[in-house]
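=== RUN LOG ===
request id: a7f3
mode: sequence -> structure
chains: 1
length: 268
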Amino acid sequence: MQTHPESNAPETQIHPAARHLRRRRRPPLPVLLCFSAALLLVLIGLFLLLRGSDREAYSENITLSPDARSEITVTERYAVLNSCYLANQKIRVEGLMLHSVGTPQPRAEVFAKQFNTFQPNGREVCPHAFLQADGTVYQILPWNHYGWHAGGTTNRTHIGIEMCEPDCIVYTGPTTFDVLDAPAARAYAEETYRSAVHLFAELCLAYDLDPLEEGVIVSHGEAGAQGTASDHTDPEHLWQGLDLPYTMDTFRTDVAEHLDLLQNEEAP
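=== RESULT ===
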């Protein structure tokens, strides 16, 4: 016959101090509730403080309003259906990135319409604006929005601008193309370059950026070589393919010169 396990167990000896501890009562429920509420308020306060600090780190979305003498016109056509726009993340603007679209399409409006979809061509991608030769700019993201244009960490700090390309070239590879009408292609690329200089100068003025400071104005190709963007070569491939004398160094210099003109116009 089995004996119940407790039947032969020796009597437990309880130390007097232990008896005292066992007699302690848990804090009354109202005390626990008050403590929990106070802790919750502290956590909420910390959250709001940190959130406010983050908001201060964001740049404002500045509406560019070039005067009648400017060679650019900016049309806000936000890509409200794009997954990037819907993500609604902000950045502190620390620089500008120059891109080239990599396809023979000279009209910025075409891209503005194309990118107003959840994932254009099945990709999560969205720059801030497209620019065409006559200075027409279609802005599809607020300037302080976290754009998806670089494929790397530069997205966190830089506005991305895509230059349109002439329709008289035919791509034969990712960075190579045949030129059907060299004078027309060069003329379009030259005008687009000049318009990009003006737009970048306006953005440098708006966000207090020094175009000659290292890392402020970069191309997709430069950032890709530095490992802060995907492996692209634009827009240098376009200039080189059309035998144009442009480099990112000439671009930065030209932006700085135009910025000086804008600042002198603002001076009293």
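=== NOTES ===
The longest strand covers residues 95-100.
The chain has two domains: 26-56, 63-266.
=== END ===
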